[in-house]
Amino acid sequence: MRALLARAGFLDLGRAAATLEDRDLTELLAPLTDLPLLDALGVVAAPDEALLGLSRLATAVRGTPRADDVRAALAVPGPVRDRLLAVLGGSSALADHLVRHPEDVAALADDGVLGTEDVVVRAELLAAVGADPDGPGEPVATVAGQAGVDALRRAYRRRLMAVAAADLVSSEPLSLMPGVAAALADLAGAALEGALALARAEHPDHASVRLAVIGMGKCGGRELNYVSDVDVVYVAEPADGHDESAALAVGARLATALARVCSGPGAEPALWPVDAALRPEGKNGPLVRTVASHVAYYERWAKTWEFQALLKARTVAGDRDLGRAYTDAIRPMVWAAVERENFVEDSQAMRRRVEDNVPAAEADRQLKLGVGGLRDVEFTVQLLQLVHGRSDESIRSPNTLRALAALSAGGYVGREDAARLAVCYRLLRVLEHRIQLHRLRRTHLMPTSEAELRRLARSSRLEPAGPEAVLERWRAVRRDVRNLHEELFYRPLLPATATLTREEASLAPEAQRARLAAIGYRDPAGALRHIAALTEGVSRRAAIQRQLLPVLLGWFAEGSDPDAGLLAFRRLSDELGTTHWYLKLLRDSGVAAHRLACVLSTSRFAAEALSRSPESVTWLDADAELAPRSRERLGTEADAVLTRAEDAQVAAMLLRAIRRRETARTAVAQVLQERTPQEAAAALTAAVDVVLGGALRIAEHEHRTGPDGLLTRFGVVAMGRLGGAELGYGSDADVMFVHDPLPGADESLAQAQAVSIAMRLRALLAAVGPEPVLEVDADLRPEGRNGPLVRTLASYGEYYQRWSAPWESQALLRARPVAGDADLGERFVALVDPLRYPAGGADAAAVREVRRLKARMEAERLPRGVDPARHLKLGRGGLSDVEWTVQLLQMLHGHDVPALRTTSTLDALAGAQDAGLVAADDAAVLRDSWVLCSRLRDALVLWTGRVGGSGGDVLPHDRRALGALARLLGMPPASGAELEETYLRTSRRARAVVERVFYA
């Protein structure tokens, strides 16, 4: 026997064996065999408790006709027996009820208890107190007083037991949960109706008042627990011919009596507390109010949380017409509440307060209020409803799961996220139900004992059903719920959407036309056409666009060109709108939508870059994706490209794609103020360095595998802004090519091969194709365009020894080996160091020549008609002024001051300051001017989208363009004039320093 009991899941085998031998139980079961019964007990939540309850029930029916009823229920395997044993093993409180009222076993035969209409349940409980649900006037109990109270409670428990039985025997309790919660809410409403009928019997003057009971919270949403406070609000109006104040007094007495019927003492256990604390002014306010009084309060005094609570308001008992008048009056205010100042922030703060008020000892056991609990789901759903529901009636359901499904269908929540959240919510509710059902006590805490956890797992049909398994499953659900709550509840789109008017949120054309014109769109009609194209239709894509656009339109207007931003967004959405991630990212990300709006409306260059590689939109969701990629990381990627690609042209295109991608990444990051100009220049330089190195490897490989093999070592030396790691978006790659024939190689053949390698490198990077070209400019080589494209190291040495001019020594200050043979690069540096950093410094003739060249450049190279004060590169106090001043200091003192031996302008300037070659104030002026000019050059490219051209280095006069540049520099709106004044002042000061330091 003990083996059978253990196999059936009994824990206390000795007690179970003794119970099976109990006289009353054996008498009850005498006609039956014990083996089928043990099998049936083996599937209930707690076999020990079920057997004990069965023994108690046997004692209660011994010698009564009810014994046959119980025996009949147990005799035949089937739903009635399963329900009876499930109730006995799942709820000790309902087992107590059956022991008191064994005749209620008959209620377990109801196969359709969860589908019973609420009017049927209402009629059943009214009949229990002798009230006619269909008679004239409001129902009044004829079984009054304590007898009526006990009759109502017993009828309630009988149907509650039937609901619990259907729930406990279900093999899929998660699927059944919404039906169970709805049945419990309908039962609570019927009990309130019966209690009100008893209250009317207690107060003969009840006819002087019309009273409606409004269900709130879970009762209002038809998603009630087994044991919960039933939240209500009372609405009263005087009956025809009666005084209002007297009628309200009667209404208050009826409400008080109703609450006493439900929760006062009696022979039968109380149902649950009736909580009216959600009424206006809470416990300090009148218990009952008229509709007008309610409306006046909500219009003037109500707080944010009160409107959130009203979302679930539903008439559950009393005068239905009055209840309908109340909800009709209140509902418009609920959906307009989002327009209150700081509505979203207040709702979010309320959730945090609820969480903070959970006692520390309970925080890790809370199913309802704690982290990842039911409130996380409910607050998330309700906030989304309140924000979007004013313009979309389809999402206004007071029921959490139905509202979540509607939010998913409308595109407000991703389908996968909604499905996960719904499953998590169902599981949390099932666990809550099972915990409460055991003793019919109001609790939301996970048990701690092994036996209770085992019963919880078995009754919830969780597999595996051990204590640790149920805890692990619950913890996983908490993590999922919390993650989804934080993603959805704190969406930046919510407060932005909440600040819109109802018309703006609905995208009504006339309202939008006025709004677009008011916030800065130059072509509202064109913008409306884009909006229509993005939102027309009933697709999920159009639905999500309708959510995003009201907010995005305002965010576009924060940029310099909202019309261009909207157009770029339409093009991007046409390209990506059908992908699974694009609109989800914009809707759900904390920053992506706002960043995208900023980029598209502020920078044509960045907008075009994103359109060329739309998948780059994902960068906007994470700062790490916008961070510059190191040269080592890019080099590893280039290695992979060169290893995989079999065709040289394909490999070169893939290398150019790396540069295009990193240029886009840099541009987006700079527009978003995530990168300084120096960081941007370093990132652009790193990408070009890697591409040059990769292209050289391709060219060398082609010759290495040719008939002659590789005849020479080859190196690429960066010059100009590339050499200084100061590239801008429109910069070419200035280089010189150097080679050194291998021992034994024919020098003429090696020279020809070197020229072929250099030409092939340039051709690979300039070939027409889908990726932007990289112009490789070798004009800074000795003799310029007239000299050999490539020289040997010895040839460079001979030339510089015999023919080098001061400007060439100056140009070599930026020389930096960037690709090819590393040893050759080091030897090239050693060769040119004496020229650029001559011992004793540059002589007086060289200094005069440098100054003469600078003066000539100012006179001849400045474009005709351009104001010298506004040219960022060649103008007074511009980039050239600062760079030539620093380079002259390097030529004069580089041999003696190691800190000056750098290709970086700012690093050299800092070294000159540290060495006392330039005053700290003068260095600061030069630094400020160089940085500002660099930022403005970048900003001009980012704003216009044009690389190069005559206007790329000139500060514009146009106020709109100046304003756009100011925004790209992080200045507030309408700062164009301030930017212009700042630049002119900074460049004047820099020119004064240049006159003193450079021209002496």
Automatic annotation (TrEMBL):
Keywords carried by this UniProt record: ATP-binding, Magnesium, Multifunctional enzyme, Nucleotide-binding, Nucleotidyltransferase, Transferase
Which is one Gene Ontology cellular component term of this protein? cytosol
EC number(s) given by UniProt: 2.7.7.89, 2.7.7.42
According to the entry, every stretch annotated as the PII-uridylyltransferase/Glutamine-synthetase adenylyltransferase domain falls at 349-489, 867-997
Provide the Glutamate-ammonia ligase adenylyltransferase repeated domain boundaries. 83-325, 595-828
Span list, region Adenylyl transferase:
501-1000
Which coenzyme or cofactor does it need? Answer: Mg(2+)
The catalytic activity, as recorded, is: [glutamine synthetase]-O(4)-(5'-adenylyl)-L-tyrosine + phosphate = [glutamine synthetase]-L-tyrosine + ADP; [glutamine synthetase]-L-tyrosine + ATP = [glutamine synthetase]-O(4)-(5'-adenylyl)-L-tyrosine + diphosphate
Cite the residue spans of the region called Adenylyl removase: 1-493
In its UniProt record, a GO molecular function of this protein is: magnesium ion binding
What Pfam families does the database record attribute to this sequence? Answer: GlnD_UR_UTase, GlnE
GO BP annotations, alphabetical order: regulation of glutamine family amino acid metabolic process
Report the function annotation for this chain: Involved in the regulation of glutamine synthetase GlnA, a key enzyme in the process to assimilate ammonia. When cellular nitrogen levels are high, the C-terminal adenylyl transferase (AT) inactivates GlnA by covalent transfer of an adenylyl group from ATP to specific tyrosine residue of GlnA, thus reducing its activity. Conversely, when nitrogen levels are low, the N-terminal adenylyl removase (AR) activates GlnA by removing the adenylyl group by phosphorolysis, increasing its activity.
Q: Which PANTHER family match?
A: BIFUNCTIONAL GLUTAMINE SYNTHETASE ADENYLYLTRANSFERASE_ADENYLYL-REMOVING ENZYME (PTHR30621:SF0), GLUTAMINE SYNTHETASE ADENYLYLTRANSFERASE (PTHR30621)
Q: Could you say which protein family the record assigns here?
A: Belongs to the GlnE family.
This chain belongs to the protein called Bifunctional glutamine synthetase adenylyltransferase/adenylyl-removing enzyme
Q: What organism is recorded for this protein? A: Cellulomonas carbonis T26
